[in-house]
Amino acid sequence: MGEMVKGGNAFVPSVPLRIAVRHGLDAAAMLLTEAGRVRGDGDVVFHGAPVHPSGAVRLTGDGVGGVGGEDGTAWLEVGLPTVEEEIVRVLVVGSTESGAMRDVAGLSVEAFAPDGTSVARYDVTDGGGETAMVLAELYRRAGGWKFRAVGQGYVDGLAGLATDHGVDVAEDGAGQVAEGGAGSPVPAPAAPVPPVAVPSPAPVPTVAVPSPPPAPAAPVPTVAVPSPAPVPPATVPSADWSFGAVFEPYTQTGRDNDVITVDGLPPGPVIVDLAVEDEGYTGLWTLDWRNKQKDNLVNSTEPSFRGRLLTEVPGRGPLRLRLQAEGRWRIQVLPLATGRRLTEEWLECGGPDVLLHTAGTADLAIRYRGDDNLIVHLYELAEHQDPTALPRHENVVNEIGRRRETVPLPEGPVIVYLKMADGPWRARLKGLQPHSAPLDPVPMPVPAPAPAPIPAPVPAPGKAPEVRKVRDWLRRGR
Fold first, then answer.
1. Distance in angstroms (rounded) separating the CA atoms of residues 222 and 157
2. What local confidence, expressed as pLDDT, does residue 167 receive?
3. Which end of the chain has a smaller Cβ tally under 10 Å, C or N?
4. Do 309 and 321 form a contact (C-beta atoms < 8 A)?
């Protein structure tokens, strides 16, 4: 088997595999259901719990102690024929005890058949400031299993990686799972949020928007970008969205790999609209104040990439982006308020996108026709006070292949970020409710007594008790 590039995938034999994680990383595995989430602590295999309750996945040899032995290799055994039917993906995770992925020489992951034949290998060559990474994944496809070279890093370490896959690492929710399943702990109810006095019933936009709408300009694209679905032009900011600054859009064109610097933007969240012509790998990263790669915004092998991405302009210095592309490209930096509004009418597009929900509670229906990952994050802004930074996101969809998803949305304003969507999709609101009226100023009520704690659930038959220190491992200093 030849070496894979990031995003590549191939079928592997449905036999017990040995997976080598090199060099000097702390290896682990996460077993995910169709919801893209673990069912409980038992679905996290690491040096503190080296064997999955089913026995299908385990750390062996040098890997049990955490990092590898003398050659810095940690080993995972994955018995594909014995993986529970409920599990559809097995993530191969690596993390550092100190330093970052860029400091790991010879970082790679390789899968071997029982006879020692290499069936898949991925060399990670673009590690940055991340301290934890999904190196690869095994996933079910057409009755068999495929191996995908992922290389998705997390600057916020194992805690960020685990949160994206259903593990609650908060201090008061140790080891709980955000969405319960068989044998999963029951999450504690969220503490009630006291009403806050609102001085005015009308929201005040942070930047005044001229009342006469500007005449729509006919954009003249410098590159022709084929798209699997209609791609909307940039919209004009409107007064019903007040989170994030309004500014003149920035546009730059170029060819092949480059570093883009955008000066003069106010700090806070923005939309980056990227279009790349020609086939080949497309990658886009933000750069931090040390000129090091920070957040990965694009990781795609799709031809003629087109998508809208969510990022933040730093509080100090300009927005700087590193682009890896083959062929001509165009990049635009737009105000967050230019995102398309979700309504009860279908929106159709292809690729990642940033959508805005401004109405009351509703259900979000998504129809996805791609072959690869669909990842959707929600950013709830109702209680968020800092307009220069995004709140912590909630991952509501993390799937592979064609999907019909419906997820509940809280009352707006909410950012709905289709972070990964390499194929055509449609989205609309269902069961839409009116936005609640602003609260009149009232005295702060006396908090009600805290509810009695929910007793720990009894493990499902055949499951080992999940008495583990997963939280301590995930939240360790990085």
1. 39
2. 79
3. N
4. no
Query: What is the location of CATH 2.60.120.380 in the chain?
Result: 240-338, 340-437
Predicted confidence at residue 437, as pLDDT, reads 52
Which of 94, 100, 96, 89 shows the shortest CA–CA distance to 123?
Answer: 94
In this predicted structure, what is the pLDDT of residue 146?
A: 93
Phi-psi region of 434 (alpha: psi -120 to 50; beta: other; left: phi over 0): beta
Q: Which two tokens stand for residue 102?
A: 């860029």
Looking at residue 330, what is its pLDDT?
A: 93
CA dihedral 265, 269, 273, 278 (to 10 degrees): 100
Residues 250, 273 contacting (CB under 8 angstroms): no
What would be the CATH architecture of the domain defined by 340-437?
Answer: Sandwich (2.60)
Q: Which residues contact 300 (CB under 8 A, 6 or more apart)?
A: 7, 281, 282, 283, 307, 422
Closest of 332, 339, 311 to residue 415, by C-alpha: 339
| Confidence at residue 462, expressed as pLDDT on a 0 to 100 scale | 43
| Phi, psi (rounded to 5 degrees) for 404 | -125, 100
CB atoms within 10 A of CB 454: 11
Reported residue count of the chain is 478
If we measure between CA atoms, which residue out of 91, 100, 73, 105 comes closest to residue 149? 91
pLDDT for position 136: 94
* pLDDT computed for residue 472 by the predictor: 63
| Rounded distance between C-alpha atoms, residue 349 and residue 425, angstroms | 6
Q: Are 136 and 9 in contact (CB under 8 A)?
A: no
pLDDT along the chain (478 residues), means of 10: 81 93 88 90 88 90 44 88 94 87 86 92 87 92 91 84 78 41 38 43 45 48 44 53 86 93 92 88 91 90 89 91 92 92 91 93 93 90 87 90 92 93 92 70 41 43 46 56
∠51-56-60 over CA atoms, to 5°? Answer: 45
Q: Which of 310, 402, 312, 393 is nearest to 352 (CA)?
A: 310
**Which has the closest alpha carbon to 93: 69, 114, 66?**
66
Q: Does the model's pTM come out above 0.70?
A: no
Cβ atoms of residues 187 and 173 within 8 Å: yes
Question: Is the Cα torsion angle 12, 17, 23, 29 positive or negative in sign?
Answer: positive
Instruction: State the architecture of 3-177 in CATH terms.
Output: Sandwich (2.60)
For domain 240-338, give the CATH number: 2.60.120.380
Q: Give dist(CA 258, CA 249) in Å, integer.
A: 20
Count other C-beta atoms under 10 Å from residue 277's C-beta. 22
